[in-house]
Amino acid sequence: MSVTAPEELPKTETVASAERKFRKGDVPAGKKRGTTSFGLFLAIVPFLVLVFLFSYFPLYGWIYSLFDYRPARGLSGSEFVGLQWFRLLVGSPTQLAQIGQVMANTLAMSFLGIATSVLPLAFAVFLNEIRATWFKNIIQTLTTLPNFISWVLVYMIAFSMFSTTGLVNTVLLDSGLITMPMKFLDTDQNIWLTMTAWSLWKGLGWGAILYLAAIAGIDPSMYESAKIDGAGRFQTMWYITVPQLMPTYFVLLLLSIANLLNNGMEQYYVFQNAFNRNTIQVLDLYVYNIGITGNSLSMATAISMLKSVISVALLLSVNALAKRVRGSSLI
Q1: Predicted confidence (pLDDT) at residue 131 exceeds the cutoff of 60
Q2: Contact at 8 Å (CB) between 69 and 84?
Q3: For the packed helices 133-144 and 191-216, what is the interaxial angle rounded to 10 degrees?
Q4: Which residue from 69, 133, 157, 168 lies 20 to 30 Å from 51 (Cα-Cα)?
Q5: Closest C-alpha among 311, 298, 304, 321 to residue 66
Q6: In this structure, is the dihedral angle defined by the CA atoms of residues 179, 185, 191 and 194, taken in order, positive or negative?
Q7: Rounded distance, CA 56 to CA 48, Å?
C-alpha cells in the first residue's frame, strides 16, 4: 500500500476537481471561444445590414440601363431597349468626344490630387515639430476646420473674394494695379489647378490627422538613440519620422490610385458655369448632368455602370500590386 497510495492520490484529486468544475457549470475553452465568436458576429450584423442596404441593394438600379426609362411611366411602362445605351456610347463620335474630354478632366484632377498627396504628410511632420503645444493646437484646429465646411459655403467664400465685384478685384482696382476686373471664376484657364488648390485648402489639415496618429505610434527610443548619436531635428525627421510614415503613405496612395475615377461632384457642381463647363466636368458631374439635367436616367446609369466596373478593375490591380510590393494585400 505504501507503493500504490502516492499514485492513487493525485488521480483522486484530479477527478474531484473535475467534478467540482462540472458542478459549477464551467464550459470548455472551445465552447467559450465559439460563444464569443458568435456574439461578436451578432455585434457586426447591423453594420453588415447597413452596408448591404446602402452599397449592394442600390445595384438593382442597374436594370434601368436596359430600358428607355421615363419617370412618368415607371419601369414597367418603359420600353425595353437592351444594350442600346451602351452601343450609343461607343457608336456616336460626338458622344465619344464628350466622354473623352470628361475622362481627361477626371484623370487630370485625380493625378493632381495624387501629386499633392505628399503635402499632408509634410504638414504633419512639420506640425509635429512645433514645441509650443498651444500654438500647435491652434494651427491644427484652423487647418482642420475647412474640412467641415460644405462646398456651397466654400464657393460663397470664393465668390465674395474672387468674383468681378469681389474683395480681390476691388482692392486691385482701388490701388490702380488693374483697370478692368480680372475673371478668376468665369474662365476655363487653369481650372484644374484652381480646383486642386481649393481641394487642398479644404482637406490639408484633415489629411494630416492620420499621419499625426502614425507619428504618435513611433517608438520614442528611436528618437532618443538618434539624439545620443548627435542627430539634429531635420536629420531626425528625415531618417526616422518620414521612413516610419511611408507604409501609411503608400497604403493611402494605392487607395487613391484605385479611386482615380471617383472625384465626387459637389466641388465641381458649385464651381461650374457656362465658361468652364467643358474643363471642369468630371465623370461624376457628367453622370449627374446627363441624368438629372438632361433627363436621361438610362444613359446616366449605363455610364455609371462602366465607371463602377473600371473602378473595381483598378482596385483589384492595385491590390495585386500591393501584394507584390508590400507582401500584403489591401483587401
Answers
A1: yes
A2: no
A3: 140
A4: 69
A5: 298
A6: positive
A7: 11
Alpha-carbon distance of 164 to 149, in angstroms, equals 24
Angle (deg, nearest 10), helices 118-128 and 133-144 = 160
CA distance 46 to 49: 5
Q: For residue range 187-236, what is the model confidence (pLDDT) as tens digits? A: 888 899 999 999 999 999 999 999 999 998 888 888 888 888 888 888 88
DSSP state of 188: -
Pairing verdict, β 79-80 and 67-68: antiparallel
Q: How far apart are CA 34 and CA 125, in angstroms?
A: 44
d(CA 234, CA 237): 5
SS3 of residue 62 by DSSP: helix
Please state, in angstroms and rounded to a whole number, the distance separating the CA atoms of residues 289 and 280: 12
The set of residues, in sequence order, having a beta carbon less than 8 Å from that of 299 and lying 6+ positions away, is 85, 88, 89, 290, 291
Q: Smallest Cα–Cα separation from 169: which of 187, 185, 182?
A: 182
HEC sequence for 215-262 = HHCCCHHHHHHHHHCCCCHHHHHHHHHHHHHHHHHHHHHHHHHHCCCC
Q: Which residues pair with 79 in a beta bridge?
A: 68
Whether the pTM exceeds 0.85: the reply is: no
Per-residue cell: 64: 434601368
256 vs 267: CA distance, rounded Å: 18
Query: Which residue in this structure is represented by grid cell 505610434?
Result: 217
DSSP secondary structure letters along 158-196: HHHHHSTTSHHHHHHHHTTS-SS---SSS--TTHHHHHH
Single-letter residue type at 12? T
User: Cβ–Cβ contacts within 10 Å for residue 281, how many?
Assistant: 21
What number is the average pLDDT over the span 30-34? 60
Residue closest to 263 by CA, chosen among 112, 54, 86, 96? 112
Distance CA 230, CA 233 (A): 10
* DSSP 8-state class, residue 58: G
CA dihedral 202, 203, 206, 212 (to 10 degrees): -130
